[in-house]
Amino acid sequence: MFHFAYDGDPALIGIVLLSLKVTLTALTCAGIAGLPLGAALALARFPGRTLLVVAINALMGLPPVVAGLAIFLLLSRSGPLGGLGLLFSPGAMVVAQFVLVLPIIVALSRQTIEDLWSEYAEYLRSIGTGRLGAIPTLLWDGRFSLVTALLAGFGRASAEVGAILIVGGNIDGFTRTMTTAIALETSKGDLPLALSLGAILISLTLIINAAAYGVSRLGARFTG
Amino acid sequence: MGYPGWARGSRGDRVHNMTSILPLTIQGLRFRRDGCTLVAIDEANIRKGRRTVVVGPNGAGKTLFLKLCHGLIAPSEGSARFTLDGGIVAGRKRHSMVFQHPVILRRSVFANVTHALGMAGHKFFERRRRARETLERFGLAALAARPARVLSGGEQQRLAIARAASLEPEMLFLDEPTASLDPTATRQIEDLLRLLHEGGVTLVMTTHDLALARRMADDILFFNDGRLIESGPASAFFERPSSAEARAFVESRLFW
User: Is B103's CB within 8 Å of A122's CB?
Assistant: First the structure.
């Protein structure tokens, strides 16, 4: 049977930590930007809103390699953002995952907030709250459902390989993450390492999802 | 009425010291949707300090009437006007509404009250002080930390009334405040409403419960089919209804 070839190996730990750092940073930024944006999109009325909603829903399925290519072009030395010097750095990977996660969070939170607004609208208007003024109330009262949007975003970011491979470059010890390492080791034929990385990735995903689910269920039970 | 901390008169004094938004004057009010006239009132007044009960069968336009008065929907024609525009004094809306199915926020009982106070523009400590006072006054202090959405129907209705009252409205609209409550909960709600009224709050409530209307009403507005058929003191309405429809309603011959 396969064994965990690199158990306790500092290189392996580095890979796992970098993966978590990149994904959680991208997820945090996408959450901070995406939840209010989703709520605003749920409540705002403007011409072309329907088109925008459809476009964002479609972006949920944006192929990571295409996103990676676009960000590669933006960040490459002769590109418009080349001056930032981000290409082939963890920062570039954060940007790529942010772009992939943002539409998911915006689209899912828009749906959640829209449903909540239809329940709360009359009361909030009665106490003198306007549509935009209602956003903080709705985000807070939708907090347990919104965890699902964040988890979907986490899943997308942690599983993704195409975009970070293109913009990060899979540089050993610098931009090598669990998914890019799995892809590399598989093509090199080092299946035990690829498999143990896969097992670690799945376990981490499971733990994070279970924790978030548990917290939100407990919270929901105690606040109705 | 046995609620600890209820300081009779304190609320009323504060109300009387301020400019009044009442009476509420209704003139030529029409509300139409899809070509149907759902509310039609030529003239009516709701006076300060009275308990006005809006009665009539289901679909008579009672709820729409409250929403028109509260400003949640705009009339197609005519107006329901407070003496001050929008019923607003010094930037604060001086009328509140309790819905038939109250919207209870997914937070604690206490946070439900502080949220409403926050939206009305009260600052952090002021919110907490007023919320504590309100819950105390309405006998809900023991439930303060409980998640509001797991309360019973009667408790939720009491919270909704307390929450509306915490904003210190001069006028409170209540849509079927005791519908789908058991007799004990109904009694508790009636007691709360009496306390509010004694404290100087003008009440306007809808009901199709005639017994409740007899117990609570100073004035009656009787609606049928969207039209205001009769208005006046409750005693006159119940003893000598002048229209055939009101007679039928009082004698419970009108089906709804």
Answer: yes
Q: Which residue of A has its CA nearest to B110?
A: A223
Under a CB-based contact definition with an 8 Å cutoff, are residues B181 and B153 in contact? yes
Three-point CA angle A172, A175, A180, nearest 5°: 80
Q: What is the ipTM of this complex?
A: 0.86
> Do residues A26 and A154 lie in contact, with contact meaning Cβ atoms separated by under 8 Å?
no
Dist CA B141 CA B132 (whole Å): 7
pLDDT tens-digit map of B212-255: 899 999 999 999 999 999 999 999 999 888 888 888 888 876 54
> Nearest Cβ partner of B72 from A119, A125, A144?
A125
Residues of chain B contacting A134 with CB distance shorter than 8 Å: none
Residues of A in Cβ contact (< 8 Å) with B149: 223-224
- Determine what percent of chain B falls in helix, strand and coil, rounding each to the nearest 5: 40, 25, 35
Closest chain B residue by Cα to residue A125: B72
pTM, whole model, 2 decimals?
0.85
**Residues A149 and A112: beta-carbon distance below 8 Å:** yes
Q: How far apart are CA B59 and CA B168, in angstroms?
A: 31
pLDDT tens digits, one per residue of B79-90: 888 988 888 887
Kindly list the residues from chain B whose CB atom is less than 8 angstroms away from the CB atom of residue A140.
107
Number of Cβ within a 10 Å radius of residue A54: 11
Domains of chain B: 10-250 (3.40.50.300)
Residue ranges of chain B whose CB lies within 8 Å of a chain A CB? 70, 72, 93, 96-97, 99, 102-108, 115-116, 119-120, 147-150, 167
Measured between alpha carbons, how far apart are the two ends of chain A, in Å? 48
How many beta carbons lie within 10 A of that of residue B18, not counting itself? Answer: 13
In chain A, the residue whose alpha carbon lies closest to the alpha carbon of B102 is A123
Q: Which domains does chain A have, with CATH numbers?
A: 10-223 (1.10.3720.10)
Interatomic CA distance for residues B256 and B250, integer angstroms: 13
| Residues of B with Cβ-Cβ distance to A224 under 8 angstroms | 104, 106, 147-150
Q: What would you report as the CA-atom Rg of chain B, rounded to the nearest whole angstrom? A: 18
Q: Find, among A118, A119, A101, A110, the residue nearest to A139 by Cα.
A: A110
Give the residue among A187, A148, A208 at the shortest CA–CA distance from A16.
A208
Q: Of B105, B130, B171, which to mutate for an interface test with A (greatest number of A Cβ within 10 Å)?
A: B105
Measure the CA–CA gap between B132 and B136, rounded to whole angstroms: 6
